[in-house]
Amino acid sequence: MIEIKDIDDNPPRFLQSFSSIWSGSYKVRLLENVPIGSQHLLPSAYDADIDSNAKVRYQLLGDSSDVNYEKMFTIKVKEPSQANTEDSVYLTVQQKLDYELKKEYFLRLEACGLTYVLPQCSSLPVRVLIQDVNDNAPNIVYPSKNIHEITVSEASPIGTLLIKLEAEDADSNEAGRVTFSIPHPTDSNTLTDTIVKGNHTNHSLPFRLDPDTGEIRLSSSLSASNIPKYTLNILASDNGEPSLSTLLQLRINVADTNDHAPEIRIKRIGCNPQSSDLTKMTVLSNAETGTHVCLLMVSDADLHQNGHVKCQSETIDDELQQRFGIGFSLLSNGRVSGHALYTLQVTRDLSLSARLSETSTGGPALFTTLVVTCKDHGEPYALTSSVSLKIRLVHQKDYQLCFEHQQYRLEIEESDGSRFNLLRPQLQELVDHVRFELKPIEKMDGNCEQLHVDEDTGELSFPSGTDREHNEYIRCLLVASEFDEKTITRSATTEIHINVTDTNDNIPNIIPSLLLTGFSLTEWDSLADLYGEQSESSIHIGTIVAEDLDAAENGTVRFHLKEVTAQATHPKSLFMSELRLPHFQLDSSTGQLTLPPDEHKRVDREQTSDFELRVMLEDCGTVVKQSNMQTLKVHVDDVNDNPPKWDPQLVASVPTTLNHYGLGPSPVPLRIHWTVSQESLDELSAHLRAFDPDQEENGQFSFFSLEQEHLPKSVLIGRTMLPKKAYQLNENGTVQVWTSNLVRDQEYILGVGVRDHGQVRRLQSTGYFYFNPGLYRESVDTHIVKYSFSSFPNDVKQLLTTRSTDSPHSSTASATTHSPWFSLPVSTFKLVISSLLCFGVTVIFVGGMIVYVISRKRVIQNTEENILNHQNLKGNTENPDGQEQVTSESLVSHYTSTDPYNIYGTVNFIPQTGLNVYYPDYHSAQLSRLRNHTENPSFMEDPLDHHGFQISNGQCYSLASAGLMTHDKHNNITCSYINPVRPYGSFFK
């Protein structure tokens, strides 16, 4: 054999480079967020040599342009294992990768043999591709700060570009695409909510943001006077998973432009009932300097200098000045709440006042026209507004008194407490002597009594509070009367309208009529299935109607069913704890009370006559809720679902099937108890008894007789139907039979029934009884006239001499009958028997107690007398003092002998039971046996005799009959007893 030795003549080769799909490099894809130390498997080289020549040494080389590859990556080689016969080469990450810094690395995995002189090597190009992950949040390039402020003119047209936001994201693809948004306050819990100053929300902002370009344009007009500043939170988000965001706060200041002219409002002083034009006013002919004619309030919606206003007046017609010396001046009163206030006053030339007397009151009216011009300080140009005032001159007698407003409207909240300083209506002029009073506008307006007016100041108040439920709307006429001494010279009126708003001060209540009557619910009809009358839908019981005097939500009532209880029809016979109550359903909004069909089956009037529902009523008040717990009754109405039932004392057996001609059980045998008439022995009477648990007509019933075809054929065999002329059955259940019309040796049968008086359906039960005239005649002949026949067919001839008791459940009373002198009523008979039984038990108990006391006394006496019976002496025990106290009363007890001749001490005694010791039954295993050669140191030979005994089969037999009597102090005996004779000395326990 020639062995060929291997030499290292094959270089390691990477088989991947020989594949048809070889792309020139082996690609490794790594996420940029891979942890440091993570390893990724690379291909292994194959060497055709064997053993040590096949071992490969690996080396990782980098691109000549990348000198940092050694810091980023290294390789780890794992030796072959049983599962893998080749080396495992892993590329290990040594530093954190960053896609944004370098996206790929070009490496070479070199594999060489272990020959170090001229090693043979091959290499595998490795291309490491770094994959991007969304690890960079967007960076807002413009504006560069996270809080940016811009100013825009309120005159800017819609569509004006306010700012263009720019942002970049170092990530690639969707993770690097940035979009802009104005987040809703609930969109993110980690970002600051959108802040919008003013009354605007996100949906009403006057700006439009393009999410892709970042352009913010004006979408509606701006007004610096309304909202001078906006603050927006703008979110720049990439589209990676998960998305990363950057927040920018943009503050937009609205610059004012002078685009609003001054606005002039006039408040007249004085009355002008002929015209509602505020520019027309009057002045008294005797008005003095400083008298107010009107008040001007001037405002400008512009800001700063654009909103500052200055006014001046110019007289167009100075007729009043020339003729009466009456002129007018405009005085500034400063600014109040953004308004410039001016007062138009009278200036009087007193030198011309004498001419007033020359004015003809019947001539044409005199006027003066005055123009008031107001100008703001806007730049580059000012805006002006003007108003023309026409002032008429009137005499004092023609000048009317009036309030500032013809109508005052006030809204207050109802309250139990006093309400003061509600309103003080003002007159148009100052009057020295005036009195105020309230009057109803119409006769029906009687609620003005609640409202009080101060007669001197006109102040309105509610001294006793106000109740909206009593008066929701109050309408009164306020009259102001000017008087001179006691004469009213002028008066003015105005209407006062007060709307009283609600507070939740009333609890909800079920209407009284419903609380009184409750609801009605028909019980479940157990027989309805036979008629197909039962409904499968929910039972509508009724709708709870509640009232709450409050308004709106305060008066809206919700219903909640809290508890259901039941009232038993027969409380003494019904265990309420075992009653399954139905589950009523109550709609919380509508108050509709229903009962599902499955729950309806639990409603049985014969068990439950009423249900009590505990209902909580709660209003929907927002500030405070009012609630009330009330009880509502649901009465259970009866249906005829129970046939009349025979008195159990009459029924001989219980039927198991329905009869063949009507509802109710099949005929049952009855026990009839007959009473003999005192007038004639041929006339007998009895009373049928039944009961029906239904109500009213459904529970009322009457009796009737059955025809032969309605009786089972089996009970008719050998019997004849009782002839109609021989009996009479009344509707109340009274039965009379005349035996003179019957055959003595014939047995008769009569079918009877009981039927209720129901309207929807009539239910019944049937039965039958036998009658044997022959048995009755035999009882008469033997002077037994009180008897009953058993209804059992096999016991027909049984003669009873006792009278059955009336049923306590019978719905009708037994007929009054006359009994013979020797027949006792049932109740009396029961009382006599009960008394005798009680007396007998008492005698037995007393006698037993007497016997027990006597026997106990005898036992104690015999115990004292026979204290030394059956003793087990301890050998050679001395008792120097001759005494030792008793320690127990057990079967074997310690006793003390006081006999002075007793020189031996402790002995064990067995107490005697008092029986005659000569009785053989007394000698049992309970007797103590004395040891042989036992001493009797107590000198009991005389008068106590020891009789020798012999044990045989566990019994002691006396040897006295054999003449073996001993008087020795030492007795060799097998068993022993002591004759019950009192020894010397006394003993105690």
UniProtKB/TrEMBL annotation:
Primary location group: membrane
A GO MF term: calcium ion binding
Keyword Mitochondrion belongs to the record: no
Localization per record: Membrane
Biological-process GO terms, alphabetical: homophilic cell adhesion via plasma membrane adhesion molecules
Domain Cadherin: 22-140, 144-264, 434-510, 533-646
Keywords: Calcium, Cell adhesion, Membrane, Repeat, Transmembrane, Transmembrane helix
Cellular component aspect of the GO annotation: cell-cell junction; plasma membrane
InterPro entries to which the protein is assigned, alphabetical: Cadherin-domain_protein, Cadherin-like_dom, Cadherin-like_sf, Cadherin_CS
Bilayer-crossing regions: 831-854
UniProt xrefs under PROSITE patterns: CADHERIN_1, CADHERIN_2
Highest taxon, organism lineage: Eukaryota
Protein name: Protocadherin delta 1
Native organism: Paragonimus westermani
